[in-house]
Amino acid sequence: MNISVSELIVRYLERLGIDHIFGMPGAHVLPIYDRLHDSQVKSVLVKHEQGAAFMAGGYARVSHRPPPCIATAGPGATNLITGIANAYAERLPVLAITGETSTYIFGKGGLQESSGEGGAIDQGALFASITRYHKLIERTDYLGQVLNQATQALLGREPGPVLLSIPYNVQKEMVDDSVLEQIHFPRKAAIRHTASVAELAGLIQDARTPVIVAGHGSILAGARDVVAAFSERFNIPVTTSLKAKGVVAEGTPLSLGCLGVTSNGDAYRYLVEHADLLIFLGAGFNERTSYLWDPKLLAHKRIAQVDRDPAQLGRVFQPDLAMCGDIRAVMEDVFALLDADGMEPKALDPLDDHRAAMTPPADDAAATQHEAFHLIQRFFSGLAQRFPHNALVFDDNIVFAQSYFNVSDRNHYFPNSGISSLGHAIPAAIGARCFAKDSPTFAILGDGGFQMCCMEMMTAVNYRIPLNVVVINNGTLSLIRKNQFQLYGERYIDCDFANPDFSLLAQAFGVQHYRVEAGADLDRLFAEADLTGAINLIEILLDKHAFPRYLSAR
Fold this sequence. Notes:
Largest sheet: 6 strands, parallel
Oligomer: single chain
Structural class: alpha/beta
Number of helices: 23
Distance between the termini: 62 Å
CATH architecture of the largest domain: 3-Layer(aba) Sandwich
Radius of gyration: 25 Å
CATH topology of the largest domain: Rossmann fold
Helix content: 25-40%
Shape: globular
CATH class of the largest domain: Alpha Beta
Strand order of the largest sheet: 3-2-4-5-7-6
């Protein structure tokens, strides 16, 4: 049966199991929007195309499905770039659909043309380095192959974003719907172990004080329960990267918390002073996690690395044992082997001694800093207690949550890693809540980042998507002010600004507002606010002169 290309694209989305599409219509994508009118795919109108890409990314992080975003040619497409770049860095399967001027006016200077012809901007070139696959579809005779290629890139073992740019006249052409039969959904083949499980088990048996360093790959592999059970059975402490907070419940006896330059340093000290074997499970050991690749973390230790991506093995350090394999399967096999051999749990004396040696800050500056952050610390403590499971937390700030937010093994913490763009948390949280409809959802960000994406709160209002937006209000770009204080002799420039009245802004949005200036305000927030089914704007006041003491990279 002959159908239009625009209808075929919508049917393709349905075949992918997609139920939401995020975007903003323009003349060059209206044929696709017209077919969405009668589709089961629900379109979400955003306030800015960057928000559409971030929403799709947030949806992907929770659902592990390939959500689409859609924008018109020219500025609509270019506005997607930051969000698609973030998806590329995060390996998220986001499908970007953009319009284009009709092919018969390529090179003639059509309005918003981005074909790359006749001096027009080249949209495909702009996206080339931030997508797994990109295609300007100028004809229909290879449409089936294009959609199949897109599917392989979206759903393959190493997924990532895809761009399909479709000229206006091509969207209106007719094709046979059998084109859809050319699409093959890739099977995720099991990754074979490239080193012996017995070798890894032997390293663990020989170690006195092994430590598991769990990364985001542990979460992607669905290995949280296996890692936690392994840790508990054999008394092996676990520290995590920022993206892997909650692989084991933080605050429990064998959790060392988060490893990273903005953390409280507890895990760092234990690794440097006590560990003799580090077992990296899907952890990339990037700048944050490694304290700018501090050699003391790895010195005088055996190192085992397990990752599904062979490119990660040995990328930034030389492991004694490297295994390319599925983390869950590897750990299940190692667990079974050590359990069958009757390996005794490791002694907890070093961990007990380490905890006994921990003392509160002694110097005045540290004590003052601790007091300045008291409200934020209490907020994260209350959040962990009020929502011990099923909460989604999208965090653009990260420096406070890394130390103060104990993520349970049943909660989901999504730091703004990737390319660390400001303006990410609110749209990403909206996208996530579109999938996880019953999960309490929080977007945490600074007041600078808030002003880059605050209008997307109206997207939540328009579609009645419950959301808690938590703004740290200190009237400054904290990272910039911190760096100018530490590295540039307090020569402050372009870091301070005036904020709107958040209570009036919330009133204009038609949402609830809570201002947190003291502990009693937090008590009222957690006692009275509907943090599950309403849209709330929560501001927590912070002195602009208070910031974490870690030193940024020079």
